[in-house]
Amino acid sequence: MYQFLIKPLLFQFDPERVHHFTFSFIKFICKIPGVKSILKSVYILEHPSLEREVFGIKFKNPVGLAAGFDKNAELFQELSLFGFGFIEIGTVTPKPQDGNPKKRLFRLKKDQAIINRMGFNNEGMDAVVERLKTNSNVLIGGNIGKNKVTPNDEAENDYKLCFEALFDDVDYFVVNVSSPNTPNLRELQDKEPLTRLLNSLQQLNLTKPKAKPILLKIAPDLTNEQLLDIIDIVKVTGIAGVIATNTTISREGLQSEDKAEMGGLSGKPLKLRATEVIRFLHQESKGAFPIIGVGGIHSAEDALEKLKAGASLVQLYTGFVYEGPALIKSINKAILQQTQS
């Protein structure tokens, strides 16, 4: 139904407006008695063989929703009904911000991709925390960043503010220094400032009664030398793992009209590079830390490829938009078949 009826209709309209409409629609139908039970029965697959324990957390299944979809923690309860094992909210900044001027979200239909230059648009950490307080049983990752107006030499404070605010209400943290849509943000991926930032968060983490896993989300555009630096940084700082990868600034091989738009590219064109980064990190580190694989997962085969390359978990975003919610169950079925064969 999604491929032949819902998606063709939604894809007629502006993608950002469709995103907000879809949120409102899902909220509405989930208030109708019986709908939540129907969604669960259709989309959720539970089996002991799907469970994973990664960085000290038990996941019902290894398929999550990547950050950027539910930025403000508005829909995580409802989205979990589609079968996700975990939901990553954000990127969250200390203060609310509008993000970049519209139009800032583009579908590249021929490439099955999306370009976004949203710019960390979100309602700020206080609004997000209020919503997270209502969480009952959804495993939540908190993706944190800095405000656009905060200079890089003061960025550490923004990350610490978000870390403190979200600490009681998320299960793990993700430090986002790899978005291409906040000016100069990617400079924080350089070895010295990144090591300093992660050490600072780890020191704060260790003051808590029970520390929470901190992960680093990296760009797919890093060189092998930079990826080796990432491996060193994980070892030195003691963070829990890496999310590979964020969106890319590459436009190689694109066919769609909007291919020249500024922003981060996600979707099928990212599949190969994201898998290469996962494999490189896993092999060069000798499996020293968990990796969450994300980028270009549009099928069960794509997800299995990421897992085979060394990912412990996977996340969807653009594939979820293009393929629909049935993709999650399809991936979990394929993983289950593989574990039982």
Structure characterization notes:
The protein has 341 residues and is an alpha/beta fold. It has a single domain, classed as Aldolase class I (TIM Barrel, Alpha-Beta Barrel). It is built from twelve helices and 13 strands. Strands 3-4-7-8-9-10-12-13 form an eight-stranded parallel barrel, surrounded by five helices. The longest helix is centred in the first third of the chain and has 15 residues, at 15-29. The model has no long low-confidence stretch (mean pLDDT 97). It is an enzyme of class 1 (oxidoreductase). This is Dihydroorotate dehydrogenase (quinone). Belongs to the dihydroorotate dehydrogenase family. Type 2 subfamily. Pfam families: DHO_dh.
How would the blueprint of this fold be written?
Layout: H1 2-10, H2 15-29, H3 35-43, E1 52-54, E2 57-59, E3 63-65, H4 76-79, E4 86-92, E5 105-108, E6 113-116, H5 125-132, E7 140-144, H6 155-166, E8 172-176, H7 191-205, E9 214-218, H8 224-237, E10 241-244, E11 264-267, H9 271-284, E12 291-294, H10 300-309, E13 313-316, H11 318-323, H12 326-340
Parallel strand pairs: 3-4, 3-13, 4-7, 7-8, 8-9, 9-10, 10-12, 12-13
Antiparallel strand pairs: 1-2, 5-6, 6-11
